[in-house]
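Tutorial, part two.
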Amino acid sequence: MKLIAIGDNVVDCYLDQDIYYPGGNCVNVAVNARRNGAEQVSYIGIFGNDEKADHIKYALKQEDIDFQYSRTVMGLSGQPRVTLENGDRIFVGGPKNTVQRMFKLQLIDDELEYTKGFDLCHVSCYSSMESELEKLSKIIEISYDFSGRKDMDYIRSIAPYIQYAFFSAAELSEAELAAFIKELKALPFGVFTLTRGSEPALFFENGVQYEQKLNPISIVDTMGAGDSLIAGFLVNYKNGDSMPSAIEKATLSAEKTCGMYGGFGYPKKM
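Running the prediction step on this input gives:
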């Protein structure tokens, strides 16, 4: 399958290591889709003009990700600061005056025509792409990572444009989870997924529930594991795997990411 990711890029700054790593949901999904066997992967986003943006571009080139339609503007790259707590990365702020916050992607005809050559477009809630989803949905299937956003008004406003929806639901009680799932089942998603931290993720296909089977692993760093799960699932599911098989391969993808620092490696000294 061929995947294009459109949206966010950042560098994750590890305060305990004095090192930063390229990342951002859409970049992480793009790289991990390629590592999971996607035939072609491209990325469109907005880069700053600093050293951190240069490092993201370097990593994308190394991973054979085409970003020819991305913009480069004057300004700082997104650079969230993170610290380690029992193997989990905790975000502790970062500069607010970044290009991710100052600029917004608006896709032009040439980019839409280019996008038609892919099987799936991945976008995240960090990409400020809500206004572009309707036009994208007319030419390609869309995968969307809602992350921790559970505002049903927001979800309903863009659900008609999305085939594959991903949510982080680790903090929900069993009762809250059941209620949330009931609301999601009423929406037109073909597949939706809820990750639950250390608990098995739940996948729903046309209302039928599948539960992830977790394996005992040693965790180095959980950064980007959810993005890697998304990429592994999308590539294999779109390539024709059954739900159980695609979930199993997605789990293996996330496990590999948990075994390294950063979303997909490439450390650089701050």
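Residues 2-269 form a domain with the UDP-N-acetylmuramoyl-L-alanine:D-glutamate ligase fold (CATH 3.40.1190.20). In part three we will examine how such features are distributed along the chain.
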